[in-house]
Design a protein that fits this description.
five-stranded parallel β-sheet, transcription, phosphoprotein, Sig_transdc_resp-reg_receiver, four-stranded antiparallel β-sheet, 225 residues
Length: 225
């Protein structure tokens, strides 16, 4: 994994760099917004760790510029600004996560791992067949025995996540994180309501959804269904 670290505090930048080096990341770094923008546009990075208060080009302007030009690197903002409107502005400008200073390196590591998992989900197979069901991630469809099942956005994302991990029991927290990210939350009851709706839609066309509830643990896909 290759990381671009754009942070004007030399001490903080050095600390993050050392920590990421130990974890096996390849890290490029700068404390200047203009140089960071140039690096982001001329190299490919898996993650960009971005401070907001930067010389020459501020973090939000940098972020908007790279998104406008189609840069899809996962971006986590580091900022001392902790107000809700600051976090919302960062996320709406194209960030994938927002971490308020001061923070522990362990938390930064956890955020990177979580963003990486979401990226892995996006890289998985476009079409998945389980039992008589075929899920197509490219056109966001689920069909069974020739019938298309009309799903809401979150219904589809929940089924997609479970179908992509058929051998695992996934708890509600994992499902929520995969579906709506770390800045929102789907409760256990909400997830169950979504799955209940999908089950009814499948039953209406004579099929049984192969997603089961393992009481007290979470949900899994029964590939033998």
């Amino acid at each position: 994994m290759k990381v671009l670290l754009i942070e004007d505090s030399e001490a903080l930048r050095r600390g993050i760099r050392v920590g990421l080096d130990h974890l096996g990341y390849t890290v490029d770094e700068t404390g200047d917004g203009s140089e960071g923008l140039s690096m982001a546009l001329t190299n490919q990075y898996d993650f960009i760790i971005l401070d907001l208060m930067l010389p020459n080009v501020d973090g939000i302007s940098l972020l908007k510029s790279i998104r406008k030009l189609g840069n899809q690197a996962k971006v986590i903002i580091l900022s001392a600004k902790s107000q809700a409107e600051d976090r919302v502005n960062g996320l709406l400008s194209g960030a994938d996560d927002y971490l308020t200073k001061p923070f522990s390196f362990d938390e930064l590591q956890a955020r990177l791992i979580t963003m990486g998992r979401r990226g892995e989900l996006n890289q998985q197979a476009k079409t998945i067949s389980i039992a008589d069901f075929v899920l197509d991630s490219s056109n966001k469809s689920l069909r069974v025995n020739g019938h298309f099942i009309d799903l809401t956005k979150n219904e589809f994302k929940i089924v997609e996540y479970l179908f992509n991990n058929p051998k695992q029991v996934l708890n509600p927290e994992q499902i929520s994180e995969a579906v709506v990210g770390s800045f929102s939350h789907l409760s256990k009851n909400t997830i169950e309501a979504h799955l209940s709706s999908v089950r009814k839609k499948a039953k209406a066309v004579g099929a049984m959804l192969p997603i089961k509830n393992k009481r007290g643990f979470g949900y899994f896909v029964d590939t033998q269904a």
